[in-house]
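dude i think i finally got it to work??
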Amino acid sequence: MKSKGPPDTIVCGIDEYSLSVGLFAGRKVCIPVFCVVEDPPFTDRYLPPIRWSRRKERRFRQLIVEKLLSQFAGIFYFVESEVLKEFSLPNIPIYQLMNGLSPQALGWVQRQPNSPKNPGKCIIGYVGAIDGKHGIEDLLEIFAAARRRAANLRLRLIGPMVNSYAPYYQAKLGDLGLDSSVEITGWLPYEKMLASLYECDICVSCNRPTEWFKAAQPLKVCEYIALGKPTIAWDYPGTRRLLDHGRYGILVPPGNKPVFAEALASLVEPTAREHIAREVRLAAKRNWTSDYWYSQVLQVLTDTTKRWKGEFGKRL
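look at this
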């Protein structure tokens, strides 16, 4: 963007209002307009399937968004491009990018004098909401199965729990006999969350296979990588991209709890996870940073703007 005068490029979000205003402004000053997709275009993707009474509204909105997007110079995805599979956009350039690692987390790690050690035990870390849709009950079953192979495992859940979910959680914990081996920190300020997670040896992501979770690039996995932690997760497309197809952790076929438990048990010994941890630490210093992905976006914007101005000049 220029400090004075009209902008060189317009970038807007994926909703009808933003797309309309962005396209109008771009046409007004004759500059390229891009869309950034960090969330799906309709919040319905976070909810159960819409009922018949909402289908016509959804279809109408879909047609509007499709019509608007067809006139854009390109689309940047910080989620998997599958989130727009219902739209027909064959001629629009697509730039598949990736969520970068938090600069704050990377800076925090660099200030730590020593790596954490847990002699005699192995702590599994999870960050996020503690509820059913994030797979907590599945995680408890997986953890119980892994403990039958490695009794020194401990589980740390870092995040808030909705009050209505607490009875289901407590019942599951009791049924599995895990009361003394699982801790919940509750919500923590960011740096305290990092400190609690940094003490863990392995990290996990086990969201239920909703349409959104399959396409998302989970920010929790970005935090895990920033802290140099091997990650075990369901093999969803977005998570697969973050973990570089299993280079920075273990990807498990979605829903296969015995294999997930085996993966946890296989990394209990420090020597077993050190190779992965080393790769993760290297990744955090290379192309997994937010600055790297921001530079990729800037390069596309710059190149497109130059080409756009060249083509506009020819028309004049």
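DSSP finds twelve helices and ten strands in the chain.
im so relieved honestly
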